[in-house]
Amino acid sequence: MLKLTVANTVTALIQGDISEHYSIRQIPLQGEVIGLGTTTEIDNGELCFLPEGDATTIYKGEPQTGAAIFQDPSSELIHFPYVCFTSNGAGLGISVDAASLPPVEAGLQAMVAAAIAQIDSPADYFGIRLQAHWQALVVTVAAKLCLWQRRRLLRDRQEDNVYESLKHFYFAEQSGDPLHHFLGPAPVWNLSGFYARHPETGLVTVPQANAHLHIHGCSSDLRFAGHIHHEHPNTRLRLIQGLILYPIAAVEVLKADLAVIDLRIEEDLLRFTIANQGRMDVSDADVVIVVNNSYRGHRALRLPWLAQGDREDVAYPIAGLPLQAGTNLIEVIANPDQTILEENLSDNRASITTVFTPSLMQPCSEDSLSA
């Protein structure tokens, strides 16, 4: 049985969630692993999973040059805000003869759809692996995460193709569109990706009608890598070979889940714990302390990093809060602006009531002295 693990979702990435992370060290790369993803806000690019011997190697398409860069699976610094990958698919793939498929003029997505129809599988998701030969190819690579930045600016407006906002590289014998970065011929590419019967789920493809195929690749000489813009009008397919389909039987979606727990007052300190109860690491997690429902006087904290399963204990001086004489309501809220797109927000806040009696020895402000 082949299992697909999705760390975050394409939908969340487009909406700007780049604060959840999954480490490359957690991805099992033994055997045939089909996958794709994108890298962090610091180290942008597109990921391609390629089989090499008895294991799978991850390469990154570099956003400035389109170059393929090896990703060290033992590195503690490489982590992804979005990545999806299968379990070991060795022996589970189904080869399809390209001669039985529609002509290349139909496009790569139509050819893959026809291949899936031939194997008569009930799966909703399929891993895809093949080698493609191109007359001309457009490849996109996310730079400065312009995809989600543009999406946030557009808000509720719809685009025909969100990939139009990404940097484009053009591979052919001769240059084409002047807006594309021409890199010369690179006719043969090894591809790995996914086909979704229902792309609106946004798990492995963009949540748009007819966007069933999401596939990344590396040129056969490992010089270049990126997102294969197979549907672009300037892309022209010559032939495909070695098409293998991997029906996926189970899907697991990983998300972060921040929680505020154990809120209490001890002596002169407000104490609480921020816990990451989810399956992904989190960066730049904001926490606010709000007194008496007045956000204007809130106190803000930021946790630079909180790994999955970890907790951060916080002690904040009561004297630093804008308490009033009498009863006060103190609320602690994690991820208040929802920059981390959590599915469960019910545990993101906790509150406590306390009675505050100002000390007679409390220092006076300069204004009160001048009065």
From TrEMBL:
Organism encoding this protein: Synechococcus elongatus (strain ATCC 33912 / PCC 7942 / FACHB-805)
Domain CARDB: from-to ranges: 270-350
Pfam families named in the record: CARDB
Protein name as annotated: CARDB domain-containing protein
Superkingdom of source: Bacteria
